[in-house]
Amino acid sequence: xxxxxxxxxxxxxxxxxxxxxxxxxxxxxxxxxxxxxxxxxxxxxxxxxxxxxxxxxxxxxxxxxxxxxxxxxxxxxxxxxxxxxxxxxxxxxxxxxxxxxxxxxxxxxxxxxxxxxxxxxxxxxxxxxxxxxxxxxxxxxxxxxxxxxxxxxxxxxxxxxxxxxxxxxxxxxxxxxxxxxxxxxxxxxxxxxxxxxxxxxxxxxxxxxxxxxxxxxxxxxxxxxxxxxxxxxxxxxxxxxxxxxxxxxxxxxxxxxxxxxxxxxxxxxxxxxxxx
Length: 276
Prior knowledge:
This protein is of the alpha/beta class. It has eight helices and nine strands.
């Protein structure tokens, strides 16, 4: 039995519950027909529940794999990982408290892509927003590549995110990266009014997995990448679940999307997208 962070346990309980729809029976319809329809709906709902539970086991297994390589601190249940990007050593502190404080393969893949393709995607002196920044690795690399970066995530992620950004960018970067809270789909016009906040690039890495906020995520992507904005979205993700593929189809319907690269050995895809 794998151990799952406490905050994610609550998410698993919420996402695994199935709402039973009220069945409206039609006059004159035989009872056995209604029973067959009911059985069919229950079967579909059971299959959905099974899919959710299977997906959660995959994510929990990945988290457990991360946890197994950590050396616990005396004061914190933390792991540390070291990277080398853009000519600098980077030390990342991970946390056991939430999945948002772990490093996932999409972030590493996008960091490698940005470092190796600076002529194709130049971040020098560009305004860059990262959504779902997590540990901050991608925002750190973007800062080291010359970007003015705003890293965003949920409020409970920001402490560790800020720690990692300051630790790895102070005295190294043209611009001091900023950290702010962003809840996908919520108060976007209030906190990030379109006329006041323009970004050349929006970065997103491993923000798609089996959670309840995929519609809000797509809404957030649309908010920052509007028609005429000339904002480019770079999204990297490990494809794990059927829900990931469904989101990808919605993503392609919403944006002019191009598959920049695919890493079959890691099941990671990197997309470049602009508003339609």
